[in-house]
Design brief:
This protein is α/β, with parallel strands linked by helices. The protein is built from 10 helices and 7 strands. The chain has helices spanning 3-16, 28-34, 47-76, 92-95, 110-123, 142-148, 170-182, 199-203, 224-229, 240-246, and strands at 81-85, 103-108, 130-135, 158-161, 189-193, 233-238, 264-269. Helix 5 links the parallel strand 2 (103-108) and strand 3 (130-135). The protein starts with a helix and ends with a strand.
Length: 270
């Protein structure tokens, strides 16, 4: 399943090569190449599959920019602890200019972390902050593993769950948020990405076995702001369409379905 993270790296590599790129990820191409997804990926067989791929790529680009901005604001506010849950091929430890004293924890299972380390060694990549990997399954006692790695719950933390929640059943999402809250001092921040309501019904039945969509398990609550308030967070949400327009990448077609609350969420711990 972690191979999906390599697919995300490929999208980021393609974006990096654009003249008007919303971000630059110099390591993304190396991750994609090591995973067999560079220089090319076979085109979809039909038009609907091609459009789905374009939509997924667009969402990855916009969410990456959204979370980059969230992290910059968080460290500008004084936060020096960053936790990436389900870190995958995230290279922010290497491509972001972090303030002195920043500690960044990458939490994921051993397989993707080992693959990632092999690429980092090959590229001779040097982190721009203190980077700490935590090899643990998020279905297990990851808070204990994070604590053992040196995370301090008494100090504010910025948490990122990017492209993660849709793969967890609803009870696991609730548990994840409860665990995050238990280790979040006042002033902590969180960035979440999630699928809008109805995505599983639209894409799940036709998903190719083994594809990312075949593993989707849950969707965003009807009111994510209220849901996060119940977990002790003051949240705002945005749609991909809203953020894309703000970044100069508007969606050129009208929505096919009624658009509810946005799947790009930022929040502050009360």
């Amino acid at each position: 399943m972690w191979s999906t993270a390599v697919g995300v790296a490929r999208v980021r590599a393609v974006e990096t090569e654009r003249e008007d790129a919303l971000f630059r990820d110099p390591l993304a191409r190396a991750f994609a190449a090591a995973g067999g997804l560079w220089p090319s990926s076979p085109p979809p067989d039909d038009e609907s599959a091609r459009l789905r791929r374009l939509a997924v790529s667009y969402s990855i680009v916009i969410r990456t920019k959204f979370l980059d901005d969230l992290l910059r604001r968080a460290v500008a506010s004084g936060i020096r602890q960053v936790v990436l849950l389900g870190a995958g091929m995230d290279s922010r430890a290497f491509r972001t200019d972090w303030p002195e004293g920043t500690r960044l924890f990458e939490v994921d299972t051993a397989a993707p972390l080992e693959f990632k380390e092999s690429v980092l060694r090959q590229e001779r990549a040097v982190a721009r902050c203190e980077r700490i990997t935590v090899a643990v399954d998020l279905r297990e006692d990851w808070p204990a593993a994070l604590a053992a790695a040196g995370h301090d719950p008494a100090a504010p933390t910025v948490w990122i769950a990017e492209g993660l929640l849709i793969y967890l059943p609803e009870d696991a999402v609730e548990q994840l948020l409860a665990r995050i809250g238990a280790r979040s001092a006042a002033g902590s921040r969180i960035g979440l990405t999630w699928s809008a309501r109805g995505a599983i019904d639209r894409f799940g039945p036709d998903a190719v076995p083994g594809s990312a969509a075949s593993f989707w398990r849950s969707e965003m609550p009807d009111d994510p702001v209220e849901w996060l308030a119940g977990h002790g967070w003051e949240a705002t949400s945005h749609t991909l369409r809203e953020r894309g327009a703000a970044y100069g990448r508007p969606i050129g077609t009208p929505p096919r379905h009624a658009e509810g609350p946005g799947g790009l969420i930022s929040a502050v711990r009360r």
